[in-house]
């Protein structure tokens, strides 16, 4: 009998750790899909015209293009920066997960839990910022905040806003926001 054997033996062993550090890749994928599947956010990223929000909803295939590596219409990235130089006018969202540490509560470090931050980098070409409903980057920010604030899908408890600041890149060709949201989880 000639059975194919996997290169590595697959076991039913549970991982040694179940902390948020072990879930970073899973969280990023879930966040990217959540953003891509939101009708308004998808339109703001896909359509570069000022009437983006009144345009037709994207198909599921078009939404997946927003997160798929190698697609011309990719606009959501699991890293802070979009790889390569951006030549055409577009909007995009980059992500990062950072600063996981033990929280200090009343001068006592709790080593059973960690606190960290989910970062969203919202960048819009300055030539397409104006839309019928105001500013494109403001609308993208509002959708991301609505999708993730008070969410219970990441860590324990709810995701809360940590900080918001303006962000300008490439000699002010792109502007937008850096949104930092706080998450707690087991260590």
What is shown here, in short?
It is built from 4 helices and 9 strands; from the N terminus they run αααβββββββαββ.
Descriptive account of the structure:
The chain is 22% helix and 33% strand. The strands form three sheets. The protein has a five-stranded mixed beta sheet with strand order 1-2-5-9-8. Strands 3-4 form a two-stranded antiparallel ribbon. The protein has a two-stranded antiparallel sheet with strand order 6-7. With 187 residues, it is α+β, with helices and mostly antiparallel strands. The longest helix is centred in the N-terminal third of the chain and has 14 residues, at 24-37. The chain starts with 23 loop residues before the first helix and ends with a strand.
Question: Which descriptors would you attach to this protein?
Answer:
4 helices, two-stranded antiparallel ribbon, single chain, alpha+beta, five-stranded mixed beta sheet, globular, 187 residues
What Rg, in angstroms, do the CA atoms define? 19 Å
Order of helices and strands: HHHEEEEEEEHEE
Quaternary structure type: single chain
Output mean pLDDT: 82
Q: What is the first-to-last residue Cα distance?
A: 46 Å
Structural class by SSE content: alpha+beta
Shape: globular
Largest sheet: 5 strands, mixed
How many helices in DSSP terms? Answer: 4
Low-confidence segments: none
Spatial arrangement of strands, main beta sheet:
1-2-5-9-8
| Percentage of residues in helical conformation | 10-25%
Beta-strand residue fraction: 25-35%
Total number of beta strands: 9
């Amino acid at each position: 009998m000639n059975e194919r054997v996997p290169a590595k033996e697959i076991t039913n062993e549970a991982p040694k750790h179940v902390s948020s550090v072990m879930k970073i890749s899973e969280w990023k994928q879930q966040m990217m899909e959540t953003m891509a599947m939101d009708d308004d956010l998808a339109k703001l990223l896909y359509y570069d015209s000022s009437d983006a929000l009144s345009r037709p909803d994207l198909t599921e295939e078009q939404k997946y293009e927003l997160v798929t590596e190698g697609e011309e219409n990719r606009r959501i990235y699991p890293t802070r920066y979009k790889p390569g130089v951006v030549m055409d006018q577009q909007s995009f969202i980059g992500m990062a997960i950072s600063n996981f540490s033990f929280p200090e509560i009343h001068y006592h470090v709790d080593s059973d839990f960690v606190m960290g931050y989910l970062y969203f980098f919202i960048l819009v070409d300055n030539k397409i910022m104006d839309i019928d409903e105001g500013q494109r980057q403001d609308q993208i920010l509002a959708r991301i905040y609505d999708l993730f604030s008070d969410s219970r899908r990441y860590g324990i408890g709810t995701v809360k806003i940590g900080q918001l600041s303006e962000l300008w890149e490439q000699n002010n060709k792109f502007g937008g926001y850096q949104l930092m949201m706080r998450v707690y989880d087991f260590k």
